[in-house]
Amino acid sequence: MRIISINREFGSGGRELGRRLAETIGFDYYDRTIIEYIARECGMEDKYIEHVLDKGAWHSASLVYGNSFSFFSSSYNVPTDILVVQTKVLQDIARKGRDCVIVGRSADTILEEYGPLKIFVYADDESKLRRCMQYRKDGEPESEQQMLKYIHKIDAQRVRTKEMISGKTWGKRDHYHLMINTSGRAVEDLATALAEYIRVWFRA
Amino acid sequence: MRIISINREFGSGGRELGRRLAETIGFDYYDRTIIEYIARECGMEDKYIEHVLDKGAWHSASLVYGNSFSFFSSSYNVPTDILVVQTKVLQDIARKGRDCVIVGRSADTILEEYGPLKIFVYADDESKLRRCMQYRKDGEPESEQQMLKYIHKIDAQRVRTKEMISGKTWGKRDHYHLMINTSGRAVEDLATALAEYIRVWFRA
Fold first, then answer.
1. Conformational region of residue B75, where left means phi above 0, alpha means psi within -120 to 50, and beta covers everything else
2. Among residues A174, A172, A127, A168, which one has the least CA distance to residue A151?
3. Which of A111, A204, B131, B150 has a CA that sits 20 to 30 A from residue A43's CA?
């Protein structure tokens, strides 16, 4: 079984790259589905799990944007149960023994024993901003200036999560096998190029 | 014309990767030859040029290892003429209009206008040390402990050179399109994988 883990800067297109890569090379693909598995296991809502894990509500309420999630704002304790369930869900996926691409979810660290190919995807602010404004979701900032702050805050949170879970630095090259800059390139093309790279990587 | 520039950590195998890549995709290849061009142009010896540019004699004498190059130790001025000639030599290469891979020599910065594909090659200390001990040259440290210090010193010098020439940080992901970790992998296989990646990159 071969596992490819993808860490990515928010707005870099890393998720799309992972999805297209998985399609191209015929691997299973996981990203947001894992949130649903965790939510089911915990008997909680997806939205809650997502905000605890992704928006760093367990870490610092200052990251939560706007008022819609202010119910977290007084909660500074780490809901470790959710982290434990996340580990269990990832282990379950690995135990299936099927080739897969996993975006985010600390899969690179949690599934380290399976020797994942670790990829980091990033881009410059201009590209990330363009992408985030284009695919803007409800509740996300409307102005470019605020959106850029939001992008940097989410990435800062990812740095903190990685450090807490693994003691490693998110985005630091030592931790990855390959780092890909998507700035100004079509993610579709990069996925094709990466698929070719990976075919050789796993054959070697 | 397509230019691929390779920056690399000392001992990471980046030079070999560049050479094999160039062979595989049929690009011209430059690394140490550029030193010879500069030496000829300046009417100086290769060894002097190499030590000025690579070992940072123009920057800090503290980098010079052992006694063999102690004639630099009192020279703290930057021989800017040599940097000017380096730029000229690189511009001449670019003006030939032929596809090429250039390892080191600040080609990524000096030939920025040609839109080079910028690659950074790195590895963990263990891999770099193994490689450096295996290909150890005269004058280089004999003990592993000293060799590791030497590796880190050369890289520290590359950081300083990059900052002086471009104001950018050597090895910082923002500056590169692709970063490749060679730890524990055969450079030959990585070159094949990279060649596939690059074929798609330039086709897109």
1. beta
2. A127
3. A111
Q: Cα distance from B87 to chain A (closest Cα, Å)?
A: 27
Task: Quote the tokens at residue B25.
Answer: 């995709």
Phi/psi zone of residue A171: left (φ > 0), alpha (ψ -120 to 50 degrees), beta? left
Query: What average pLDDT is seen over chain A?
Result: 87
Q: How far is it, in rounded angstroms, from Cα A133 to Cα A125?
A: 12
Question: Chain A partners of B200 at a C-beta cutoff of 8 Å?
Answer: 189, 192-193, 196
Q: What are the pLDDT digits (tens) for B86-106? A: 999 999 999 999 999 999 999
Query: Across the interface, which of B181, B186, B200 has its CB nearest the CB of A196?
Result: B200
Best mutation target among A118, A121, A126, A200 (most B Cβ atoms within 10 Å) is: A200
pTM across the whole model: 0.87
ipTM of the prediction: 0.86
| Chain A residues whose beta carbon lies within 8 Å of the beta carbon of residue B120 | 173
Instruction: Count how many Cα atoms sit within 13 Å of the Cα of residue B49 in the half-sphere of its side chain.
Output: 22
CB-closest option in A176, A185, A200 to B192 = A200
Distance in Å, alpha carbon of A172 to nearest chain B alpha carbon: 9
Q: Is A65 on the interface with B (CB under 8 A)?
A: no
> What's the Rg (C-alpha) of chain B?
17
pLDDT in tens, chain B (204 residues): 999 999 999 999 999 999 999 999 999 999 999 999 999 988 888 888 888 887 655 554 333 333 344 344 334 344 678 888 999 999 999 999 999 999 999 999 999 999 999 999 999 999 999 999 999 999 899 999 999 999 999 999 888 888 877 778 889 999 999 999 999 999 999 999 999 999 999 987
Answer whether B176 sits within 8 Å of A179, measured CB to CB: yes
